[in-house]
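Hi V.,

You were right to ask for the full record rather than a summary. Here it is.
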Amino acid sequence: MSILLLSTDLMTSSQLGAAAQQAGTSLHTVASSEALIDAWRAEAAALVVLDLTAANLDCAAVVRALGEEASVPPPQILAFGPHVHEQRLAAAQAAGCDEVLSRGQMFREAGERFGQYAD
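Predicted structure:
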């Protein structure tokens, strides 16, 4: 597993899954912060993608938990959300996400970004 996505939106999962497949990598989707951390512990992904519209996402807790794992290097954390959700985007940046993108940027650049994590 190269990329982990936390999202509760089936369209988002489908679109980003297709982008990952075209880029030659795999994407595993989970629906909660706890499931994301458990999946990452089971098989450390190089990239974690957080959909900031997921109702059950605690962005700061995820960033903190992934950074505290001493057994493997922390993943790159990329968060995205609607450009009109300025507070969520700013909070993700403040929480320590490596990159924070608007939803439009994420979908435009997903294939290129995911290609860096090809299997």
